[in-house]
Description:
Nuclear Transport Factor 2, Chain: A, 5-stranded antiparallel beta sheet, 24 strands, disordered N terminus, binds zinc ion, metal-binding, signal, protease, zymogen, metalloprotease
Amino acid sequence: MKFWSNILRSIFLAVVLATSATASPFPASLRHTILQVREISPGVVVESFHPESSFETFGVNGIDHPLSARDEFDLKDATVSFIQSRLNIDADSIGFRTGFSSDVAQHAFIRQQINGIPVANAVANVAFNMANKVVSFGSSFVTTPSTVANVPSTSPSISVEDAITNAESALSGKFNEHPPTVEFVAKKDGSLALTHVVQIQNDTTGAWFEAFVDAHSGALVQLTDFVAKASYLVLPITKETLLEGFEVLTDPQNPAASPDGWHSDGTTNTTSTAGNNAVAFKGAQTNTTTESSVGLNFIFTQDPNAAPTTQANIDAARTNAFYIVNTVHDISYVYGFTEAGFNFQNNNFGKGGAGNDRVTISVQDSAGIDNADFATPPDGQSGRMRMFLWDLTNPERDGALENDIVTHENTHGISNRMTGGGTGRHGDLNMLNIGSCLQTNEAGGMGEGWSDAMAEWTEHKNATVVDFVLGQYVTNDSAGIRSHPYSTSATTNPLRYSSLQNLTEVHDIGEVWANMLHNVYAGLVGVHGFSDTAHTDPTTTGGNTVFLHLFLDAFTLQPCNPTFLTARDAWIQADANRFGGENFCTLWTEFASRGLGVNAAAHQDDSTVPAGC
Ligand SMILES: *[C@@H]1O[C@H](CO)[C@@H](O)[C@H](O)[C@H]1NC(C)=O
Ligand SMILES: *[C@@H]1O[C@H](CO)[C@@H](O)[C@H](O)[C@H]1NC(C)=O
Ligand SMILES: *[C@@H]1O[C@H](CO)[C@@H](O)[C@H](O)[C@H]1NC(C)=O
Ligand SMILES: *[C@@H]1O[C@H](CO)[C@@H](O)[C@H](O)[C@H]1NC(C)=O
Ligand SMILES: *[C@@H]1O[C@H](CO)[C@@H](O)[C@H](O)[C@H]1NC(C)=O
Ligand SMILES: *[C@@H]1O[C@H](CO)[C@@H](O)[C@H](O)[C@H]1NC(C)=O
Ligand SMILES: [Ca+2]
Ligand SMILES: [Ca+2]
Ligand SMILES: [Zn+2]
């Protein structure tokens, strides 16, 4: 039975000495994916088993639950009845923990309970669509008749004080006075342990644990390490609009790009939206009041029906902006925007470039409305991102929650630092820009185009190159904030090189460039396919990987104040440098398809490709 197999996949933890492997009731092949081994102190190793929860999804229409016929929908009742019927268990073993609704779904979070006591590592979550049908169900419940028969006494035989002493000693820290609880922990032999759950911290090392001490034997049977893992409730960077739904991401950092994670500069560790690459805050530029987390759990649920300035929504905004800027840091880092390439970091770990210039992200900045901006001073001074509120809807919407806007701004920092070698300028979504190597109208326009193209790149999910729209969430308009979607269809987007004849505004010019890059992207993906891991692995071979290499490589090749012609030539050269010219004809064909062919000049179209293409 499917449900029974969950037992074998649940989280279990045991303190064991060294790596003395005990016989495990799950296949050896699973060991690598469900075990995590952590050395707490020399010789003391905690082996933790991560659950592989079951997960089912039920499409656009969803499925019924036993109370579907009722006129009134109650999230808790519907959830309990659904799980009860799905898992064939008693209602009183289903502990409703919390629920909330987004614009598109209603979410319930449940903990299994036995004899009224929650099982710490047995949880479930159910989502309903707005028609109150079940659309997904995840579960790591462990109830079975045999485990229920083996439930230990629910009266602890050792005191909480003794449990604290044991935990303090095992974990080299002090109890932090957070109220202890009594919970069950499901163990790998299918039995349960009754535990005292206490928090232990060490101010010197920054360690912060939740320890589960067996309330009958006194042994440490499970551990949650708040510090080692960071979780963020965010809109994953591949999602284009908020309506696609927030997710909890755990440890999304790429160690190849951020070796000490996102909350450490190698010296100071934080549990807030402040770290080596970025600091996200609301307030004056001098008042970097960041979002604090519980441990490193940045779980702040945005309420779409409340003003963005409510506390929960500010917290959600700081968390999302921090996540996006760090993710863009990590992506661009592995493609070449490194310390030596003039990136934004406080500590450069001795790898060159000037440090002390992490991005400062001011969310809901009071300086503006319906926009966002990014100031790029030279290497060694922080890039300054300012995200504004948008007042086109009621309640207002927050640009920090629209990933493509945050990425657009962040990319100004990349194009400005990489073109001309570490110099900078100011860029925004809709206003005029000034700066050093992207100063001219045409270069500044391409600056806007690169920013849109990078935002688009992050949001591609597969080899299907769909049209791309920027800013549809903040405007609550499916057309977004540009004149046309970026598209391979010349009907959907007719912009060509010659369109520049009639354009002077940088964002208008940027659209022409971003649409050309969209076509280049489509051409490369058409030839090379799509790499799912391109965000973290620049050695993959998909067209999306090739595109981002050329995108960043061309920055450092192109001259100060590039034109469409010289920027195109930089791409062709970047391909020659990295791929031996493998994509020569693909690139020329795509540029030429929008008028930037071999004989294009002075904003006159040409569709010629080199001989042999
Ligand atoms: C915290 O950790 C340090 C370094 O390991 C250790 O010296 C100290 O005793 C610990 N503090 C407590 C309260 O155990
Ligand atoms: C800070 O965090 C880093 C990376 O997570 C870790 O290696 C280091 O031990 C931590 N330092 C302190 C003082 O806790
Ligand atoms: C600094 O931030 C805190 C918390 O967001 C806020 O209460 C305070 O008013 C801010 N101060 C300034 C000068 O902006
Ligand atoms: C967004 O637009 C839709 C349709 O135009 C409208 O029904 C909805 O109220 C708008 N949302 C907000 C928050 O303004
Ligand atoms: C590919 O991604 C697009 C969105 O970019 C999505 O609409 C489509 O369903 C995806 N196709 C597959 C096969 O996953
Ligand atoms: C520029 O605008 C004029 C006047 O609207 C129009 O006739 C012409 O076709 C435009 N040129 C291009 C290349 O779009
Ligand atoms: Ca968007
Ligand atoms: Ca730097
Ligand atoms: Zn811009």
